[in-house]
Amino acid sequence: MSSSVSARPPAKRGRPGHDLESVLAAAVRLFNERGYEATGMEALARSLGITKSAIYHHVASKEELLRMATDRALDGLFEAAEQARARDGRAIERLEFLTERSVHVLAERLPFVTLLLRVRGNTDVERRAVERRRAFDHLVAELMERAVAEGDLRPDIDPAVGARLLFGMVNSLTEWYRPGGGMDVGDLAALVRKTAFEGLRV
């Protein structure tokens, strides 16, 4: 007795799936290229080659993507601040460590830091990010104030202004630094520290 096996139609190859990380990366790229306000979920779906409903499987809204992106940058900076705070030694040494670590965070999370620096506080999510940035700036200013008190930084430097100037230099790297561009990030971090602190030290 012969038996017949029913032939199954060949499986269709659809578009490759996307996880939350790839959706977030695409969103950050578009936010940086077009601006957050000008980027809709439809544009994000087109860039990924999926439907909007597929995006909503991962996130509830565009605002949630912005919050995740800015938190990615800020969490790295606060981790660096905690590492600096836990170190032994004088405040100036912890401040120099934090400066170098912040360059590493910027290099490792460049698209996220770039987006963070463009946030202006127009929405609740943006205002929260701005408040966290100010809290980080305050930590830097506190270290500077302590370093002045310990006699390692020039006494004529206002700590709050000094913190803004120091991290203004660090943040300016987003305008031209590109990973793999020929300069080792460790060398870059050391150069930023040297450039800043040779002018700040007594």
Please give a structural write-up.
This protein is mainly alpha-helical and 202 residues long.
Key terms:
single chain, 202 residues, mainly alpha, 67% helix, disordered N terminus
Shape: elongated
Tell me the helix content. 55-70%
What structural category arises from helix and sheet content?
Answer: mainly alpha
Summarize the helix and strand pattern as letters: HHHHHHHHH
Mean pLDDT: 90
What is the terminal-to-terminal distance?
Answer: 98 Å
Supply the number of helical segments. 9
Radius of gyration: 23 Å
Largest sheet: none
Number of strands: 0
Beta content: under 5%
Oligomeric organization of the protein chains:
single chain
Low-confidence stretches: 1-16
Question: In summary, what is this structure?
Answer:
Helices cover 67% and strands 0% of the residues.
Please render the helix and strand layout as text.
Layout: H1 20-34, H2 41-48, H3 52-56, H4 62-86, H5 91-108, H6 110-118, H7 124-149, H8 159-171, H9 185-200
